Amino acid sequence: MKNIISSFLLLLIVSCNSKTTEEKTTTKNNDNVATLTAAQLKNTSFEIGNLEKRSTSSVLKVTGKIDVPPQNMVSVSMPLGGYLKSTKLLPGLHINKGEVIATMEDQQYVQLQQDYLTTKSKLFYAQKEYERQKELNQNQASSEKTFQLADSEYKILRITLNALSEKLKLINVNPNTLSEKNISKSVNIFAPINGYVSKVNVNIGKYVNPSDVLFELINPSDIHLNLKIFEKDITKLSIGQKLVAYTNNQPENKHKCEILLISKDLSANEHSADVHCHFENYDKALLPGMYMNADIELKGNNVLTLPQDAIVNFEGRDYVFVGINENQFRMTEVKIGNSENGFIEIKNPEYLQDSKIVTKGAYTILMKLKNKTDE
């Protein structure tokens, strides 16, 4: 008799446990299902749809800095050296091409002008002597050796004069206007470009060598953006591709750019390449060396998407509501990707194929479901 009672109690306990587990499973499943009344369906604006295949774009976010092409940067030096007599340049000062930016002086400038004028005078006499000896030689009135000496002297002086003329041009002295009346110990340095002074490396009275850089000038009219692109993203870019750039201080101020050049050489440390971009409109507020952010729009392949209104976020996760029947909807978790033009990519579409999905009014159903769960 005791054995019969024990068996009955064990069967009763197992039955109760099984019933409890079944109730928990049913409750858990029901927690994800929202049931709407006919009145709720009538008073709420719902739209039902399916996954749609669309071509979406993604945005590649990169960083870089403003750079200036080499032809727009000039280092000013004095090819023969000398002392800086005067200058008005300061960093940031605007200059115009051809204006005097500094005056140099040195005794070698005087010596160079003297040598040029002396050689020029000797050349005049040598030319006359050459012509006279040539005529005498043709008439056999002088020896061949005398004519050859006159010819050699004439050629040497011509070579010397041309060389001295080029040296004078290096220090901005016009040999064609030079005479014994305007020899000067001072020479001027002229601005080679329009732009701004970037650096001033000398002070008045300082002696500079031919290799020393006196000033650095920049023409910012052709500044460009130099972006650092990692190896994995290089193949996504192409010349002519559009992008927008902005600074950290003014992220709302977007600057439109276009890719001009993509480097074929990757850096050893970062495995990144330089991508040079041209600003469509020059902004004087942008200065060389300034760091910028850039957003590059990348065209993607066709992917399955849903309207953004179909996605609801609950407790940090994204969900959609799939229709079970006319008034019941199951909340199903989804993984989302890029969004564009009101549509968002679904990365796990295999769970939603051929499903009827709420594309409008999803948050209303979420509120109904939450209220039911809280009861």
Automatic annotation (TrEMBL):
Look up and give the organism this protein is from.
Flavobacterium myungsuense
Name the SUPFAM superfamilies for this protein. HlyD-like secretion proteins
Q: Which Gene3D superfamilies match?
A: 2.40.30.170, 2.40.420.20, Helix hairpin bin (1.10.287.470)
Q: Domain of life here?
A: Bacteria
PANTHER family per the UniProt record, alphabetical: CATION EFFLUX SYSTEM PROTEIN CUSB (PTHR30097), SLR6042 PROTEIN (PTHR30097:SF4)
* Taxon lineage: Bacteria, Pseudomonadati, Bacteroidota, Flavobacteriia, Flavobacteriales
Q: What is this protein called?
A: Efflux RND transporter periplasmic adaptor subunit
Q: Which UniProt keywords apply?
A: Transport
* NCBIfam families for the chain: RND_mfp
